[in-house]
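Problem: given the chain below (345 residues), write out its structure.
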Amino acid sequence: MAKIRVGDAEETVVTRGEWPLERAAEVLRDETIAVLGYGVQGPGQALNLRDNGFRVIVGQRRGSPTWDKAIEDGWTEGETLFEIGEAARRGTIIQYLLSDAGQIARWDEVKPHLTPGRCLCFSHGFGVTFNELTGIIPPGGIDVVLVAPKGSGLSLRRLFVAKKGVNSSYAVFQDATGRARERVVSLGIGVGSAYLFETDFQKEVWSDLTGERGILMGAIAGVFEAQFAVLRKNGHSPSEAFNETVEELTQSLMPLVAENGMDWMYKNCSTTAQRGALDWRHRFREAVTPLFDELYESVRTGEEARIVIEACGRTDYRERLEAELSEMADQEIWRAGKRLRELRP
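Solution.
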């Protein structure tokens, strides 16, 4: 595990070069990895581990659409696909990849199988960090670790198939066996991480919840909608407004930023764009920083966790969610986007 300079800090990272797949396979040679949940992260992690040669089984609720999806993906009922409790019983490493609400609901079913020597692995620090709200308190005698890919399960799988990978964070919450670190790093390599950077459960969930509500989804959707609305209000066509707001960013600029950084992007645009962007970025930063401070405080205090748990616990949550998503889909910006994506070659 190398210490490298990242920005203004020294960090511990693990690369595939220093911890190759062969070493990970040797560390987990005698383990059965039970992936519980086959929704968002489950398919990508389970399939990547299986394709990398690890012994993997899946735990999912029988009769659910995701049970059928697991069968379509090649998992066999009674051999590699089981009900959640049975998969937990069979696994020596239990990857707890149900949704946060699902983890709370199934905890009493899974906990009896967390016997000494086993390893409980999360991909999100939510359940453990906010245990006063979730009730998820791991017993002693087991390793408790975290591997959190910095991308969706779909991206994790697509990049794996393309022989690439997403970055992941890793953490050790409890080391009962003396093997927790080698187990978690091997899992991180096994699921297809490009490299691993060290964190802890609390920092992972605080940064993750802030990111989801901020730049990754909440903020960018809000900024998209605001700019599109201003352009439309001033007489621009839906095509022009969408292309200048979403299409050029996602299809042209962001891939270049991902490859080379924002400074490179600024150097390689027109002088008009460059000058305006340099000036206006300060105003946008100053405008949104107080909002990000407010957001982070809401995450840190557990208020966001409380909101999530309360909302997901309502009996009509799915209906409310579908209504909110339908309202978003019906906005002109996303109706325009759907039509214009059909025109891509």
